[in-house]
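Reviewers of the previous submission asked for a worked example of the structure-prediction workflow described in the proposal, so we include one complete record here. The input consisted solely of the amino acid sequence. No template or homolog information was supplied to the procedure at any stage.
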Amino acid sequence: MFHQFYVPPNMRNYLRFLWWKGGQLETEPQEYRMAVHLFGAGSSPGCANFGLKYLAQQCEADYPSAASFIEKNFYVDDGLTSVPSVTEATDLIINAQQLCKTGGLHLHKFNSNKVEVLSGVAPSERAVTTGPLNLSLDSTAEGHVLGIQWSIESDTFSFNIDKRDQPSTRRGILSAVSSLYDPLGLVAPFILSGKCILQELCRMGIGWDDQLPDSLHSRWEQWKRDLHRLKEIVIPRCYHPPDFGNIVRVELHHFSDASNIGYGACSYLRYKNGKDEVHCSLVLAKARVAPTKLMSIPRLELSAAVISARLSVMLKTELGMQIDEEFFWTDSQVVLAYISNEARRFHVFVANRVQLIRETTDPAQWHYVDTAENPADHASRGLCAGDILSTNWLSGPKFLWKPEIHPTPHFSPDLLVCDPEVKSVKTFATHANEQTDILNRLSRFSSWTTLIRVVARIKRLGMKSDRVSSIVTVEERRKACELVISLVQRQAFLQDIKTLQKGNSLPCSSPLSCLDPILDEGLLRVGGRLTKATLSRELKHPVILPKESHITRLILSHYHATICHQGRSQTLAELRANGFWVLGGSKAVAKLIHKCVQCRKLRRPTEEQRMAELPKERTEASAPFSYSGMDCFGPFSIKRGRKEYKRYGLIFTCLSSRAVHIEMLEDLSTDAFINALRCFISLRGAVCQLRCDQGTNFVGARNEFREALKQCDMQALEAFLADKQCEFVFNAPSASHPGGIWERQIRTIRNVLNATTAQCAGRLDDASLRTLFYEAMAIVNSRPLTVDSICDPKAPEPLTPNHLILMKSKVALPPPGKFVREDLYAAKRWRRVQYLTEQFWGRWKREYLMNVSTRQKWHKTRRNLKVNDIVIIKEDMLPRCQWQLGGIVETIKGDDGLIRRVKVQVGVQSRTKKQDRAFKPPIIERPIQKLVVLVERE
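From that input alone, the workflow returned the following structure tokens.
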């Protein structure tokens, strides 16, 4: 009856009333699922009858009255052929309303394609149509069924297109394509064309609100023009004509196909009546775009076949009718070979999908169809709106309309010899014996305990024991251990074992000769001189193990972990206490500890590399402060009235002459930095390059600086320096040693200031602190750069930075080449300055520069860190067990090819599930002196 009388949209209210029991609404999970199933199925005209049948079966035990009411008034056993009379339909509406009214529910919004049925329903109880309802026979009413237009008079479906013009952007295209509601896939080929345009935009990386590129604009305009032609498509709601007659056979045919554009499937119902007349109609279809990840055509064809199998399961469940026979059609011989093949093993992708197909269908149901006759070809390539009615999409291929179908006889196509989806069977020609083969299999284990447990269980199976306990006993473990060690010894010491079995002594060339080995129950043990000692056999005669063996490494790792990763002596003692003697055990244990990740995490020092060459700025003569290093220090307390304030110092160090300049900062804001830089440049002249740290290695109150430096805008500082034609060079984060040239000056200045401020504690103001800074600057610039000749009374005055920046000297210096000594007293000041400058740089090269040429530490070249090395990052403020774990993603080489800075990707442990979906681990830059290598890439 439901192909002519539509279930009201508020049928769920009626169902709630059916489950009303004793004045309380039943909300048990099973009944709730029934309600969801019925409402989901009953909302569509084609499936409502079968949802009611399901409800009647489920309610029969607990609600016999409800079940009988459904069977009597709603469910018709053959819903596609039996049609109730007008009187029965009217009585059904009235009885349903009265029954719901008893429970306080209002059942309304009825609709029907029979005017006589609606004439007996009050106008207020009818469904709202698109226009005023006219009961005259020549009128046409339309209703909405899940967003699709339902012409009640002609009992057909059509599409109502929203004419709002969407912008030609990715967002507008998504809105337009999604506005088409087509749950049955009636116009799936047309929607596929729009989805392909949207996928192409995603592949090109077009933004949501960016305009379409010219290459796609014409396709989009053509699709929009075709969109309005969907109104021409009219689809009968019933699967066969009303006057089709008695149906004697019902068949279900599924077609699948794929292409580079997309893949899909479509299903058709084929009816045959007593007159051998045939009618076919589209039931359900799916069309999907091909994945952006490149995939082969056979894989896409197999994915389409999976859709056919799933459509079959769903339709057989929801249609609820007797299907006499079911067919599956595809134009891919490769897919047919995959489905029919049982002897070959496939890779995971194909194997999973073939298994799903074989679980839901019979391989004998799959047949070959020519591509020209395959309607699923439209679902994989797309169609224009005007071609949907002119092609075989809605009606099916021509051979389905013939009285008899003669599919190709079923056969199992042969797979290609070089099919990439078939797992290759590798056969190795080897002369290895059984013991070697077993040891190769045991080499896959990474735990000695697990290996022994597995071998013990295998021995239990081999002995056909009746024991079913899941616990492996101590005796079973001991026997398994002896078996494994016996295999290892026979592989490593086969000749020595044969010699001892013959009763001969081992030659001196044998590595076992010094151990005086003995054979005890097939195992090689150390003989030694402890035979009469009152010790256990394992202590007196430990078993001998080779040094280079995977089993030996597992045993060493096991006992090393047993003693909680202690040193070499403790590990070796624990090993021998448990009855094992490893040849060259001391070196083997040392090698194990060197590679042990846990030991590296606990005790390994940080990385180091040979000290780098001095930069060119430190070895070439240049004007004072042309190349400088910058850093902050402090804070210092000053008083203004009764309040105390904090002030900071900003030090500039000349890289060549080691001269210093100090400016006072009121705070660590960007404006304070820029003002101090302007003062420095105004006094000392233009600066070509400024080097500084990245704010994490300040001397003094580190925590205070870390919070205060958040106010500093580094981009504003770089913009200011760029205007001054100055390059800003940053050292690696958390690395203080590259800035040692100014870090050492900070220590010197603090020593001077601490001695001075101690005499006037609590009485300093801004002017006094600035004066102290300048006094400290003068003192530091008067220090000698070298002390080699400081004890020689005949030597010239020690070289200081003031010789260059002040051009003053108490003792006359020896004359240079072209400037004579008299120029020191000449009236031309520029000649006097030039003379002093040349004297400074000459002595600077002879006395100072040669002293800094040697490396104080880091003399050897170490292994360069590599990408994918696993490291932990040293943090001075955290205990070692809390250092972050990371992996190296990029290395930065120096001029000499050595790596001293790397970029590390670290993870954040505390994240919510929502953050995990789009979480991108941070990447930080660190010097190698802050890293501890856990696992090398090799």
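The radius of gyration is 45 Å. We consider this example representative of the routine output the project will generate in years two and three.
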